[in-house]
Fold this sequence. Notes:
Low-confidence stretches: none
CATH architecture: Alpha-Beta Barrel
Number of domains: 1
Bound molecules: the ligand Cc1ncc(COP(=O)(O)OP(=O)(O)O)c(N)n1, the ligand Cc1nc(C(=O)O)sc1CCOP(=O)(O)O, magnesium ion
CATH superfamily: Aldolase class I
Number of strands: 8
Distance between the termini: 32 Å
Order of helices and strands: EHHEHEHEHEHEHEHEHHH
CATH topology: TIM Barrel
Number of helices: 11
Shape: globular
Amino acid sequence: MRPPFDPTLYLVTDTELCSPRPVADVVRAAVAGGVTAVQVRDKHASRRDLLALTRAVRDALADRPDVPVVVNDAVDVALLAGADGVHVGQDDLPAVEVRALLGPDRLLGLSVESADDLATALRLPPGTVDVVGLSPVWATPTKPEAGPGLGLEAVGELVRTAHAGGLLAVAIGGIDAGRAAAAAATGVDGVCVVSAVCAAADPHAAAATLRAAISPAAAR
Ligand SMILES: Cc1ncc(COP(=O)(O)OP(=O)(O)O)c(N)n1
Ligand SMILES: Cc1nc(C(=O)O)sc1CCOP(=O)(O)O
Ligand SMILES: [Mg+2]
Protein backbone atom coordinates (compact mmCIF):
# COMPACT_ATOMS: atom_id res chain seq x y z
CA MET A 1 0.00 0.00 0.00
CA ARG A 2 1.24 3.51 -0.86
CA PRO A 3 1.96 5.90 2.01
CA PRO A 4 -0.59 8.70 2.49
CA PHE A 5 0.28 11.60 0.20
CA ASP A 6 -1.05 15.10 0.79
CA PRO A 7 0.67 17.33 -1.79
CA THR A 8 -1.15 20.54 -0.78
CA LEU A 9 2.16 22.38 -0.26
CA TYR A 10 4.96 20.34 -1.79
CA LEU A 11 8.49 21.58 -1.08
CA VAL A 12 11.19 20.66 -3.62
CA THR A 13 14.59 21.33 -2.09
CA ASP A 14 17.54 23.16 -3.61
CA THR A 15 20.74 22.83 -1.62
CA GLU A 16 22.31 26.02 -2.98
CA LEU A 17 19.25 28.13 -2.28
CA CYS A 18 19.08 26.76 1.27
CA SER A 19 22.78 27.48 1.86
CA PRO A 20 24.42 28.17 4.26
CA ARG A 21 21.61 26.52 6.21
CA PRO A 22 21.49 22.72 6.10
CA VAL A 23 18.68 21.53 3.83
CA ALA A 24 17.30 19.41 6.67
CA ASP A 25 16.95 22.50 8.90
CA VAL A 26 15.09 24.40 6.19
CA VAL A 27 12.82 21.40 5.59
CA ARG A 28 12.04 21.02 9.26
CA ALA A 29 11.12 24.69 9.63
CA ALA A 30 9.04 24.64 6.44
CA VAL A 31 7.12 21.55 7.56
CA ALA A 32 6.38 23.24 10.88
CA GLY A 33 5.05 26.15 8.80
CA GLY A 34 2.71 24.00 6.73
CA VAL A 35 4.61 22.06 4.05
CA THR A 36 2.83 18.72 3.54
CA ALA A 37 5.28 16.83 1.29
CA VAL A 38 8.99 17.09 0.50
CA GLN A 39 11.06 16.19 -2.52
CA VAL A 40 14.83 16.03 -2.06
CA ARG A 41 16.39 17.51 -5.21
CA ASP A 42 20.06 18.32 -5.72
CA LYS A 43 21.20 18.25 -9.32
CA HIS A 44 24.85 18.73 -8.32
CA ALA A 45 25.14 16.08 -5.62
CA SER A 46 26.81 12.72 -6.20
CA ARG A 47 24.60 9.70 -5.58
CA ARG A 48 26.44 9.20 -2.31
CA ASP A 49 25.79 12.78 -1.21
CA LEU A 50 22.17 12.61 -2.33
CA LEU A 51 21.75 9.49 -0.19
CA ALA A 52 23.22 11.27 2.84
CA LEU A 53 21.04 14.32 2.16
CA THR A 54 17.90 12.21 1.89
CA ARG A 55 18.72 10.41 5.14
CA ALA A 56 19.30 13.75 6.86
CA VAL A 57 15.90 15.01 5.66
CA ARG A 58 14.21 11.79 6.78
CA ASP A 59 15.88 12.05 10.18
CA ALA A 60 14.77 15.68 10.51
CA LEU A 61 11.19 14.56 9.88
CA ALA A 62 11.30 11.47 12.10
CA ASP A 63 8.50 12.92 14.22
CA ARG A 64 6.43 13.77 11.11
CA PRO A 65 5.61 10.43 9.46
CA ASP A 66 2.62 12.15 7.86
CA VAL A 67 4.97 14.13 5.59
CA PRO A 68 6.28 11.92 2.80
CA VAL A 69 9.85 12.30 1.54
CA VAL A 70 10.31 11.77 -2.18
CA VAL A 71 13.65 11.67 -4.02
CA ASN A 72 14.17 13.50 -7.30
CA ASP A 73 15.35 11.29 -10.19
CA ALA A 74 17.24 8.63 -8.20
CA VAL A 75 15.29 5.44 -7.58
CA ASP A 76 18.36 3.75 -6.10
CA VAL A 77 18.74 6.50 -3.52
CA ALA A 78 15.03 6.41 -2.71
CA LEU A 79 15.21 2.68 -2.00
CA LEU A 80 18.43 2.85 0.01
CA ALA A 81 17.17 5.76 2.11
CA GLY A 82 13.80 4.17 2.71
CA ALA A 83 12.13 7.22 1.17
CA ASP A 84 8.42 7.28 0.42
CA GLY A 85 8.84 7.66 -3.30
CA VAL A 86 10.62 9.07 -6.31
CA HIS A 87 9.84 11.73 -8.90
CA VAL A 88 11.04 11.29 -12.48
CA GLY A 89 10.82 13.50 -15.53
CA GLN A 90 10.48 12.90 -19.24
CA ASP A 91 14.25 12.44 -19.64
CA ASP A 92 14.75 10.24 -16.59
CA LEU A 93 14.31 6.47 -16.31
CA PRO A 94 10.97 5.33 -17.76
CA ALA A 95 8.12 5.34 -15.25
CA VAL A 96 7.19 1.69 -15.84
CA GLU A 97 10.72 0.55 -15.09
CA VAL A 98 11.00 2.81 -12.07
CA ARG A 99 7.75 1.34 -10.76
CA ALA A 100 9.16 -2.16 -11.23
CA LEU A 101 12.15 -1.22 -9.07
CA LEU A 102 10.10 0.67 -6.48
CA GLY A 103 7.48 -2.00 -5.94
CA PRO A 104 3.87 -1.24 -5.08
CA ASP A 105 4.41 0.47 -1.73
CA ARG A 106 6.08 3.71 -2.75
CA LEU A 107 4.90 6.83 -4.53
CA LEU A 108 5.88 7.64 -8.09
CA GLY A 109 5.61 11.13 -9.55
CA LEU A 110 6.08 11.93 -13.23
CA SER A 111 6.62 15.31 -14.85
CA VAL A 112 4.17 16.28 -17.57
CA GLU A 113 5.03 19.19 -19.80
CA SER A 114 2.30 18.88 -22.45
CA ALA A 115 -1.03 17.27 -23.28
CA ASP A 116 0.91 14.60 -25.20
CA ASP A 117 3.01 13.75 -22.13
CA LEU A 118 -0.16 13.41 -20.10
CA ALA A 119 -1.85 11.21 -22.71
CA THR A 120 1.19 8.93 -22.61
CA ALA A 121 1.14 8.84 -18.81
CA LEU A 122 -2.53 7.90 -18.82
CA ARG A 123 -1.81 4.94 -21.09
CA LEU A 124 0.65 3.43 -18.58
CA PRO A 125 -0.50 0.38 -16.64
CA PRO A 126 -2.82 1.41 -13.80
CA GLY A 127 -0.93 2.08 -10.60
CA THR A 128 2.32 3.00 -12.34
CA VAL A 129 2.16 6.71 -11.56
CA ASP A 130 0.47 8.36 -8.58
CA VAL A 131 0.92 12.03 -9.35
CA VAL A 132 1.85 14.15 -12.32
CA GLY A 133 3.88 17.32 -11.92
CA LEU A 134 2.52 19.86 -14.42
CA SER A 135 5.53 21.90 -15.40
CA PRO A 136 6.32 24.69 -15.60
CA VAL A 137 3.31 26.83 -14.78
CA TRP A 138 5.44 29.94 -15.20
CA ALA A 139 9.02 30.32 -16.43
CA THR A 140 11.37 30.31 -13.46
CA PRO A 141 14.98 31.40 -12.82
CA THR A 142 15.34 28.36 -10.55
CA LYS A 143 15.28 26.16 -13.67
CA PRO A 144 15.66 28.35 -16.77
CA GLU A 145 15.85 25.33 -19.07
CA ALA A 146 12.26 24.47 -18.17
CA GLY A 147 11.28 27.09 -20.73
CA PRO A 148 8.17 29.20 -21.04
CA GLY A 149 5.23 28.57 -18.77
CA LEU A 150 2.18 26.53 -19.68
CA GLY A 151 -0.11 29.21 -18.25
CA LEU A 152 -3.01 28.79 -15.88
CA GLU A 153 -5.62 27.86 -18.46
CA ALA A 154 -3.55 25.03 -19.92
CA VAL A 155 -2.71 23.80 -16.42
CA GLY A 156 -6.42 23.71 -15.56
CA GLU A 157 -7.12 21.61 -18.66
CA LEU A 158 -4.31 19.19 -17.78
CA VAL A 159 -5.59 18.91 -14.20
CA ARG A 160 -9.07 17.93 -15.39
CA THR A 161 -7.63 15.31 -17.74
CA ALA A 162 -5.34 13.91 -15.05
CA HIS A 163 -8.19 13.66 -12.55
CA ALA A 164 -10.44 11.98 -15.12
CA GLY A 165 -7.68 9.40 -15.51
CA GLY A 166 -7.41 8.85 -11.77
CA LEU A 167 -4.12 10.69 -11.21
CA LEU A 168 -3.26 13.39 -8.71
CA ALA A 169 -1.82 16.56 -10.22
CA VAL A 170 0.53 19.15 -8.78
CA ALA A 171 1.86 22.32 -10.37
CA ILE A 172 5.46 23.55 -10.36
CA GLY A 173 7.43 26.47 -11.72
CA GLY A 174 7.41 30.11 -10.72
CA ILE A 175 5.00 29.70 -7.83
CA ASP A 176 5.47 32.13 -4.97
CA ALA A 177 3.22 33.64 -2.32
CA GLY A 178 1.72 36.07 -4.81
CA ARG A 179 0.87 33.36 -7.34
CA ALA A 180 0.02 30.41 -5.11
CA ALA A 181 -3.70 31.14 -4.92
CA ALA A 182 -4.01 31.39 -8.71
CA ALA A 183 -2.08 28.16 -9.18
CA ALA A 184 -4.26 26.40 -6.58
CA ALA A 185 -7.41 27.70 -8.29
CA THR A 186 -6.61 25.59 -11.36
CA GLY A 187 -7.87 22.63 -9.34
CA VAL A 188 -4.48 21.04 -8.69
CA ASP A 189 -4.08 18.81 -5.67
CA GLY A 190 -1.10 20.83 -4.60
CA VAL A 191 1.48 23.44 -5.49
CA CYS A 192 5.23 22.86 -5.52
CA VAL A 193 7.73 25.49 -4.53
CA VAL A 194 11.51 25.68 -4.54
CA SER A 195 12.81 29.24 -4.18
CA ALA A 196 9.75 30.59 -2.36
CA VAL A 197 10.81 28.50 0.64
CA CYS A 198 14.47 27.54 0.12
CA ALA A 199 15.58 31.12 -0.55
CA ALA A 200 13.38 32.64 2.13
CA ALA A 201 15.03 34.23 5.16
CA ASP A 202 12.38 32.55 7.31
CA PRO A 203 11.27 29.22 5.75
CA HIS A 204 8.69 28.64 8.49
CA ALA A 205 7.00 31.98 7.80
CA ALA A 206 7.28 31.51 4.04
CA ALA A 207 5.56 28.13 4.24
CA ALA A 208 2.83 29.51 6.49
CA THR A 209 2.18 32.39 4.07
CA LEU A 210 2.00 30.00 1.12
CA ARG A 211 -0.29 27.67 3.00
CA ALA A 212 -2.62 30.52 3.91
CA ALA A 213 -2.73 31.61 0.26
CA ILE A 214 -3.53 28.09 -0.95
CA SER A 215 -6.07 27.07 1.64
CA PRO A 216 -7.11 30.16 3.62
CA ALA A 217 -9.75 28.36 5.69
CA ALA A 218 -7.47 25.49 6.71
CA ALA A 219 -4.72 27.87 7.79
CA ARG A 220 -6.89 29.78 10.22
C1 LIG B 1 6.54 17.57 -8.56
C2 LIG B 1 7.56 17.79 -9.61
N1 LIG B 1 7.16 18.06 -10.86
C3 LIG B 1 8.07 18.26 -11.83
C4 LIG B 1 9.42 18.16 -11.54
C5 LIG B 1 10.46 18.30 -12.61
O1 LIG B 1 11.09 17.03 -12.81
P1 LIG B 1 12.07 16.81 -14.04
O2 LIG B 1 11.34 17.18 -15.28
O3 LIG B 1 12.63 15.45 -13.97
O4 LIG B 1 13.20 17.87 -13.79
P2 LIG B 1 14.24 17.85 -12.58
O5 LIG B 1 13.53 18.20 -11.33
O6 LIG B 1 14.86 16.49 -12.50
O7 LIG B 1 15.23 18.90 -12.96
C6 LIG B 1 9.78 17.87 -10.24
N2 LIG B 1 11.07 17.75 -9.88
N3 LIG B 1 8.84 17.68 -9.29
C1 LIG C 1 12.38 21.62 -10.22
C2 LIG C 1 11.59 22.32 -11.25
N1 LIG C 1 11.07 21.66 -12.31
C3 LIG C 1 10.45 22.49 -13.15
C4 LIG C 1 9.88 22.06 -14.43
O1 LIG C 1 9.23 22.88 -15.09
O2 LIG C 1 10.11 20.91 -14.77
S1 LIG C 1 10.45 24.08 -12.66
C5 LIG C 1 11.34 23.66 -11.28
C6 LIG C 1 11.82 24.64 -10.28
C7 LIG C 1 10.72 25.49 -9.69
O3 LIG C 1 11.33 26.41 -8.87
P1 LIG C 1 10.61 27.68 -8.29
O4 LIG C 1 9.55 27.20 -7.38
O5 LIG C 1 11.70 28.41 -7.55
O6 LIG C 1 10.10 28.46 -9.45
MG1 LIG D 1 14.29 14.65 -13.29
